[in-house]
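Exercise 7. Predict the joint structure of the components listed below.
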Amino acid sequence: MSSLLVGVDRSASSRRAVAFAARFASESGATLRIVHVIPWSQYTFSTPSENEVRSTRKKEEIAAAESQIMVPAIAVTDEFDVTPTTTVVHGNPAEELVSIAARLGDAHIIVGRTGDSKFKQVLFGSTPGKLIQIASTPVTVIP
Amino acid sequence: MVRATSIDDTINEAVSPVANFISGIIFFSVKIGEPGDPAYVEIPIIVVWLIVAAAFFTVYLGFQNVRGFKHAIDLVRGKYSDPKDAGEVSHFQALATAVSGTVGLGNIAGVAVAVSLGGPGATFWMILAGLLGMSTKMAECTLGVKYRKERPDGSVSGGPMYYLRDGLAEIGHKRLGKFLAVFFSICCIGGAIGGGNMFQANQATTQLVNITGGEAGPLADWRFAVGIVFALGVGAVIIGGIKSIARVTEKIVPIMAVLYIGACITVLVVNFTAIPDAIGQIFVGAFNPEGIAGGVIGVLIQGFRRAAFSNEAGVGSASIAHSAVKTKEPATEGFVSLLEPFIDTVVICTMTSLAIVITGTWTDPNIEAGVETTSAAFGTVAPWFPFLLAVAVILFAFSTMISWSYYGMKATGYLFKDSAKAELVFKVIFCVFTVIGASLSLGPVIDFSDSMIFAMSLANILGLYFLARVIKREITQYRAKVKSGEFAMVDQDH
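Solution:
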């Protein structure tokens, strides 16, 4: 396993996933990349006024993700001997994680269990659930 | 307490002379024959103006409306989208926003007017006008993206006012360009208030009155009150900035469009034995109409006029909505915008028309030509079916009003250098006219709304002719890039 890919959001379980991945990376010598995917689809509907400022919003969303999700996630890795790289992208979380993993080659995806209600999972599916379905690399889900 | 009807009448009396005066100018017609003669026909110059432009761009751009159709669908599906542009406005989103502004009461009420006045044959000419209109739409949306303005804060504005000003300046017609841009903006404000607002409010209110018992029902005397409710809804979104309402509408409208088409198909299925006869009526009526004022030309004018009002090709409005897309090649949005008149006119308008022709409601003299005709057609399926139409009508009207308020606001912004105060004044006026529109009887509203929307096309199409070479160059170089593979499909699994 040459690289570890950990997908994060704001949840506590994703912090635990980062801790797990950081320990794993420092022990195995694999590289660690922390990824946050901002949920987005090209097929949603928006008003003209939203479209007008979309580019600005995209930058704001990325900046917010960097400061509110990435900074705390990197802080979790401080106690381990590993220097993570980070990526923030827009898209479908599971699909983006799989495609980044495919580009990295020999990768292992690690995510936290999102803890969505059963109702939400039935309706929208969960990211770990979808990852297991579509990933071509090993996936570890941290409770 | 003043009775509501008297308020309606007062508003009617005050607005009608102005509306009649403006529509008299815009709809200046060439008269052929003597009034009273069956062959007598009035040909509004403006309709000829739109159709000639559509035919010209169809030929001049090399029938891209047919040849570029598949490419347009590939673009909308994101097959050519750069993965780095995820999170920006996609082709699909730009198209969907423009379509929700375009698909409105023109598709339901306007078509009914066309068939009532022009007979079933109007459907044929409407479809033809829709197919040709795809080319005009392509021309204006390509320019919209090419000459859009990106502000320092990253926000994007585009549309005819920018390409008229900057595009014409580039080819040495700076003063003309400035004049046309201002003319366009003024008409756009009028069009937003007329067709984009009053007409929508009027027809949505009519349908509400209809399904609650008609003129004898409780709402008949309270049209202005219904208008106030609409105005509050629109105001909440455009002045109050309550995005959730807008978002919900934007999400529901596509579902409604599918539901509306489904409902029309149901009307067709229930009356399936009448389908062959209806198709026969459409073709016979298109070339050899009986009892229609003006004969073939009379039918043709009705079809063309309603198609143009519905899909707005040549008017320039949609170019404002399409301009926000993220793309490096302006022509891509030109191709995508081809689909808009197709969805609007060739699919949705045709559905309405078939429902009306098959059920024969257009021949009933007791039904006022407009949304009532469509409602009666829906009523042949089940008594509750017109309620479904009412929901569709209200949502279509609402989303069109939101889109047009934006177009009007951008035009105001252009005239007043993006002054927030001027834009706010426009929004308030817009809401006031929502109430006025709901209160008026159909005649003055439809004339005023038509005339203002069509007036936009005077400046826009003149600009398109001047910039025709620029448009062609843009599309040709883009086509070459696609052919050579320089602009290639992106591997979506990157």
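Discussion. Chain A is about 50% helix and 20% strand.
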